[in-house]
C-alpha cells in the first residue's frame, strides 16, 4: 500500500469511521495492526509479538478498527445504478440483442424463487 493511501485511510477512519487513538496506540498503529492481520492472514499472537503489544491490546484495537471500517462502508458502498445497459453488454453484438433490458443476467443478481411441491422432480444423489 502506498503511504498516501494509508494516510488517507487513517484520516477517513478518524473522520467518518469515528476511530480515535488511545493512550498506547495511535490511529496509524491500530490501522497497521488491522491491515497486518487481514492482509497477512496472521494470528493475533504473532501480531502481538511483531508489534510488541499484549494479546488483549491487539484484540481490542483490531475490533475497534473493524467496527470503524464497517461504519465507513455505509458511506462508500452504494448500490449500482440500473438506469442504463452495462457497457459489457451494450458494446458486444453477441450479447446485446438478448440481454439489452435484462438486469442481473451478467452482474450475477439472483432472485429468490420457490417451486411448488407438485412440480418438484425427485433427485437421488449417490456419493
Automatic annotation (TrEMBL):
Residues 1-70 form the DUF8040 domain. It comes from the Eukaryota. Pfam families: DUF8040. InterPro entries: DUF8040 (IPR058353), HARBI1-like (IPR045249). This is DUF8040 domain-containing protein.
Amino acid at each position: 500500500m502506498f503511504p498516501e493511501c494509508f494516510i488517507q485511510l487513517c484520516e477517513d477512519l478518524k473522520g467518518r469511521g469515528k476511530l480515535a487513538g488511545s493512550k498506547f496506540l495511535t490511529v496509524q498503529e491500530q490501522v497497521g495492526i488491522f491491515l497486518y492481520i487481514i492482509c497477512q492472514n496472521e494470528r493475533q499472537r504473532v501480531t502481538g509479538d511483531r508489534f510488541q503489544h499484549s494479546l488483549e491490546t491487539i484484540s481490542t484495537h483490531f475490533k475497534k478498527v473493524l467496527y470503524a471500517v464497517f461504519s465507513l462502508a455505509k458511506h462508500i458502498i452504494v448500490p449500482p445504478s440500473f438506469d442504463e445497459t452495462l457497457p459489457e453488454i451494450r458494446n458486444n453484438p453477441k450479447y446485446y440483442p438478448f440481454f439489452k433490458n435484462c438486469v442481473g443476467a451478467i452482474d450475477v443478481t439472483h432472485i429468490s424463487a420457490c417451486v411448488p411441491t407438485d412440480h418438484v422432480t425427485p433427485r437421488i444423489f449417490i456419493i
